[in-house]
Description:
The chain is mainly beta. 13% of the residues lie in helices and 59% in strands. The chain is built from 1 helix and 6 strands; from the N terminus they run ββαββββ. Strands 1, 2, 3, 4, 5 and 6 form a 6-stranded antiparallel β-sheet that branches. A hairpin with a 2-residue loop joins strand 1 (10-26) and strand 2. The protein is elongated. The two termini are 20 Å apart.
Amino acid sequence: GFLPDTPDSCLSVYEYAGLPSLKAMQRGAGQAVVERPRVQITCRGTARDYSTPRGNAKTVWQRLDGLGAQDMSAVTYLFVEALGSPFELLRDANERVVIACNYQVQKRAS
């Protein structure tokens, strides 16, 4: 949920508002069965290095975009979709480039 000052090269995951949950009628009340959060994944490198964080973000994008059902940490993730391609988010005060990509996630309600 945050990008620490050190190490220079690192990856972070931020949750942010997603879409409303998908509901199913169960005993007369709509119960959430699929949650649809969104996440932003950022990759940072060393000072003035653009290619390493860009390459890391592309690798993450290639592995996550279109990912089907996966069980991780007792949660079933049904689908992950990139909302675009990786992009330069910022350059911090230490001249480190941060590349980001946003993802729509579908997971079983937990």
